[in-house]
Amino acid sequence: MMERKPNILLEKSEAFAGRIVKMYQYLITQKKEQIMSKQVVRSGTSIGANIAESRNAQSVMDYINKQNIALKEADETAFWIKNLYHGGYLSEKEYVSISADCDELVRMLVSPVKTLKKKVGKLPPTV
């Protein structure tokens, strides 16, 4: 297999996915929460999957698309985490910790996506 250079965004998204899976297991076994936990595990693991896919993009637009999907999944994950907290399924400490990791991924995704969209002229006027 060809050696790839390290990708901090991919590494952080993989670590985050691991945390999300553990949180999911906790939510379904300890808190007996079945609905939101399925949503958060789907969106939270999808972030890294899309970042990984972007490494094999066929074009700049394909790369932007995959990174943008990862960003949308990160935003959705933040939504579910917040709702799990407000629903009493996560303590404040748990919420603050996992939210900080999710927010970091969002910040890491926003800047390159905007920069690349501007370069290729595909940035909507509202962003």
Q: How would you characterize the overall build of this protein?
A:
By secondary structure, the protein is mainly alpha-helical. The protein has helices spanning 8-29, 35-54, 60-86, 92-120. The chain is elongated. The mean pLDDT is 92.
What's the short story on this structure?
The chain is an all-alpha fold and 127 residues long. It is 77% helix and 0% strand. It has helices spanning 8-29, 35-54, 60-86, 92-120.
Features:
4 helices; single chain
SSE topology:
Elements: H1 8-29, H2 35-54, H3 60-86, H4 92-120
Percentage of β-strand residues = under 5%
Helix content: over 70%
Q: Given the helix and strand composition, which structural class is it?
A: mainly alpha
Which ranges are low-confidence, i.e. pLDDT below 50, for 5 or more consecutive residues?
Answer: none
Find the count of extended strands (DSSP E, 2+ residues).
Answer: 0
Q: What's the pLDDT, averaged over the residues?
A: 92
Give the CA-CA distance, first to last residue: 39 Å
Query: If helices are DSSP runs of H or I spanning 4 or more residues, what is the number of helices?
Result: 4
Largest sheet: none
Shape: elongated
What's the alpha carbon Rg, rounded to whole Å?
A: 16 Å
Order of helices and strands: HHHH
